[in-house]
Amino acid sequence: MLHEALSGRRLTKLEYEHELPQLQDKLLDAQFELRKERARAVVMILTGIPAAGRSEVVNELLGWLDPKFVTVYGFREPNEVERQRPPLWRYWRVMPPKGRIVILHGGWYDDFLTASVRKRGRPAAAARREVDRIQRLERMLVADGVAVLKIHLHIGPELQQRRLRRLSKDKTTRWRVTAEDQWYARHYGRVERAFEHCLEVTQQPCAPWHVIDGTDRQHRALEVGRVLLEGIEGRIGTAAARPAGPSPAKARSLAARVRLPTVMRGPAVAEEDYDRRLEELQGRLALLSRRRKFAGHSVVAVFEGMDAAGKGGAIRRITASLDARQYRVVPISAPTPEEIARPYLWRFWFQLPPRGNYTIFDRSWYGRVLVERVHGLAAKPDWRRAYGEINEFELELTEHRVIVAKFWMSVSPAEQLARFRERDRNPLKRFKVDPEDWRNRKEWKEYQAAARDMIALTNTSHAPWAVVPADDKRRARLEVLRVLCDRVEAALD
Amino acid sequence: MLHEALSGRRLTKLEYEHELPQLQDKLLDAQFELRKERARAVVMILTGIPAAGRSEVVNELLGWLDPKFVTVYGFREPNEVERQRPPLWRYWRVMPPKGRIVILHGGWYDDFLTASVRKRGRPAAAARREVDRIQRLERMLVADGVAVLKIHLHIGPELQQRRLRRLSKDKTTRWRVTAEDQWYARHYGRVERAFEHCLEVTQQPCAPWHVIDGTDRQHRALEVGRVLLEGIEGRIGTAAARPAGPSPAKARSLAARVRLPTVMRGPAVAEEDYDRRLEELQGRLALLSRRRKFAGHSVVAVFEGMDAAGKGGAIRRITASLDARQYRVVPISAPTPEEIARPYLWRFWFQLPPRGNYTIFDRSWYGRVLVERVHGLAAKPDWRRAYGEINEFELELTEHRVIVAKFWMSVSPAEQLARFRERDRNPLKRFKVDPEDWRNRKEWKEYQAAARDMIALTNTSHAPWAVVPADDKRRARLEVLRVLCDRVEAALD
Q1: How does DSSP classify residue A351?
Q2: pLDDT at residue B202, as a whole number
């Protein structure tokens, strides 16, 4: 119970003046180390009931730390752009790079609390989904080296009233009491219960809550400072308890069942036939994408496959049927230093389309379990947990009415070789020739094994893979368009 | 006149097959050089009347170039986030880094054309301001090494009708004709006149228009490809004709008149008095920032001054009076590689506040004419033209109801030395000590001269400087708050 946290502990001036310099000294050291090592980032979320001293504490912390490397964010009601993305999108955008500290006023708990305090009749299922989302996000952050420090500042109802009254009485301080504060103070009981419930259901070992008594100004500041210190030093918020996913044996047996055919059954398609069927499918996609209902959805299409598998060609057949204002093609290559310093999925969150739009990824987050795995660019524990993280990420998307269509363009080694040779011969295709492609070709078996694991472990019902036999370019393109049309149509009906 | 551009030139299949490989070969070479040298970026804006072949041409270009380094953007009606920023903000965001190509479907001309075609009664002054804005932007881009290629595709009314009819007749291609196309086709005369006017008023030597006949599919593609080639190779869109600004003599005499007093007249402020006056001013700012009318404005505050001049302290006194959701403090340091590769002001555009919000810059775009000038980090022509560019940038802001408040915190060398020594003595201020600060101190005279020039040349009526004597910290903070309150109040009344 929250009121049990109200110890009423007070510090004498002497105690405070003794303890503060020591703490500040340690904080500055820790922050310096954090910046130097760049092994970790810190996200501190501060919730609190009005007049418990949240803003004052943040100001004090900024006075103790080097404020150039601390960023404070508060959030209003989601705006139009934010509403068109999954609920946690706006928080992803402000995640700090390694070496830095971000302080969130309320952070992702504000939406949750506002909903429980103000909207009494919220369906339990919606609340549960939100808790799941929050827990998933925090687990992922912690696993990615972001310490998540959750602090709640609390005071009792009498003290709250007293503080608000005192501020209101004086003409020069009256502005400090907002209408929102007064509303919350009038509903103290309901607010306290909402906080209690919220803290209880979002408690987890990798990101525990710290309830701090806001009664004494100096005591509370030092307490928050101490939590921050532990977080910067990596002593809390690092116990990454990831769900294990399927056992290795189970995963192997799943992967063994994945087939990657490179040749489609049935007869070839003559050029004239191809042109007609392509036009038909493009028309179908165009009309689907203009349907009124489509304005409530969006599409994330993912293309993976060996070099020269025909990803680019298939993508251009899709975009040719869309309005230029309606799509964006995002080619994915090695991450920039800015991106490397953040959680793995961060750079992909940025690219999510608004409603009624397409984002088409030419390679994607699956690089983690393909190229990064095969070439040892990601550590084994990192790419292994990526399967689960990716499934959760895509679940977040589909829950938000994003259609996720994933294509594995499956080409045979012989066909790839023929295409490489054609590229070498044709000077106008020289931009497609990369010495690395030949190197990747040598790892064919490892790539195929990685692709099988990937498809086995991320072929979810909400975001299934389509394996497209790609030795015949024309039929592969028609197949991609057909699958995409089917997926969009199913979502609209 | 646009119809004069309709040469009706057609290519035989033989001609096309002869010319295309040569052009494509040159384009690939040029693109490769562009990427290797990273000295230039290319922005191609493609306008055109419906059925002139705009989308087809873009698809053809993407087939000829290495599409991984070309990004295509189309724009819808501005969304909520975009409407809260100056009109050109959303285009700034997609500017390519050096070495890359961006193709804009319509780009900043779409808004202009839509307004002239659809809204007949637009005030002439609004249209003129928009033309000014566009011309300023293009000049700035060209001066910053971005080739701006403006291409308009045109066809006559009969051909347009014929093409739209043919597409509509066939069941499989009917989807290609949108309601928007049909509207534009019905108003051919009005649309053509709007284009003619637009091209005429936005013609400028550094970014000329190219009108291309869209009659023959192959001819138009080659023509657009040739303009692009010239742009990539730096043969057009490089004649940077910047307005000269005041003559050096005039600038010198203006700068000589700038005073940078470090001590305020009048008596010192006692601690108790200070607390009371601070609380009063903070309350005044808080209440101003909560006024309903403030939701239609935003504030950009800029703090410049020598090290230890008290910028951070003054900023914290401002933020203490604002809602945490209402402001963002942006400390500016050396640009990242991503930022260096783009026009100088690019990284600052990103940080503009939404309506009702503050962005406070701890150092700013004035770094160009201060640190970058003094330490030779920017070439002389670059920092010299920055004065004009900055004035135009700030004009853009103020025209969009952004209050721009600029503070030069003026500290004396003796007071700075005392503060440095205090920092050295106090381990808890060690994060404020930087060997570079001592180096900068040696360049005191150069910095003061640069500050005088800066204030003389950017002290505009829309965004005036406040020079704040800062040897007395308390009074400096009160003065900053007072000026800021006055500026906000004046804007609201």
Answers
A1: T
A2: 95
pLDDT at residue A6, as a whole number? 84
Q: What is the pLDDT of residue B241?
A: 55
CA-nearest of B166, B169, B161 to B185 is B161
Chain-chain contact of B324 with A58 (C-beta, under 8 angstroms):
yes
Each residue of A31-86: pLDDT tens digit?
999 999 999 999 999 999 999 999 999 989 988 998 888 999 999 889 888 999 99
Residues of chain B found within 8 Å of residue A72, distances taken between Cβ atoms: 324, 329
Q: Which domains does chain B have, with CATH numbers?
A: 2-232 (3.40.50.300), 248-492 (3.40.50.300)
For residue A131, give both structure tokens: 């808790």
Cβ atoms B251, B453 nearer than 8 A: yes
Residue type, position A379, single letter: A
HSE at residue A459, side-chain half, CA atoms within 13 A, is: 17
Q: What angle do CA B421, B427, B428 make, to 5 degrees?
A: 110
User: Are the Cβ atoms of A428 and B28 closer than 8 angstroms?
Assistant: yes
Residues in chain B, overall count: 493
Cα–Cα distance between A77 and A92 in angstroms, integer?
A: 16
Radius of gyration of chain B (CA): 27
Among the partner-chain residues A173, A286, A312, the one whose CB lies closest to the CB of B175 is A286
Chain A hits for B76, CB-CB cut-off 8 Å, are 325
pLDDT in tens, A126-170: 889 999 999 999 999 999 999 999 999 999 999 999 999 999 998
Distances (CA, A) of B157 to B49, B52, B170, B190: 10, 10, 21, 12
Asked whether the CA dihedral B177, B183, B189, B190 is positive or negative, the reply is negative
Work out the minimum CA distance from B461 to partner chain A, whole angstroms. Answer: 31
* Chain B contact present for A329, CB below 8 A: yes
CB pairs under 8 A between A and B: 134
Q: Which residue of B has its CA nearest to A329?
A: B71
Which residue from B65, B319, B427 is facing A25, i.e. has the nearest CB? B427
Q: Are A115 and A129 in contact (CB under 8 A)?
A: no
Q: What's the confidence (pLDDT) of residue B126?
A: 86
Which segments of chain B have a pLDDT < 50? none
- pTM higher than 0.80: yes
Nearest CA among A122, A119, A183, A191 for reference residue A154: A191
User: Which DSSP string do the residues of B397-423 spell out, in sequence order?
Assistant: HHHTTEEEEEEEEE--HHHHHHHHHHH
- Whether B263 contacts chain A with CB within 8 A: no
Report A:163-182 residues touching B (Cβ under 8 A).
Answer: 172-176, 178
pLDDT at B250: 86
Whether B153 contacts chain A with CB within 8 A: no
Tokens at A381, concatenated: 């524990």
What band does A474 get if pLDDT is binned at 50, 70 and 90? very high
- Give the ipTM of the model, two decimals please: 0.83
CB contact under 8 A, B76 and A287: no
How far does A254 lie from chain B, in Å, by closest CA?
35
**Cβ neighbours for A255, distance < 8 A, ≥ 6 positions apart:** A449, A452, A453, A455, A456, A457
For chain B positions 110-149, those within 8 Å of chain A (CB to CB) are none
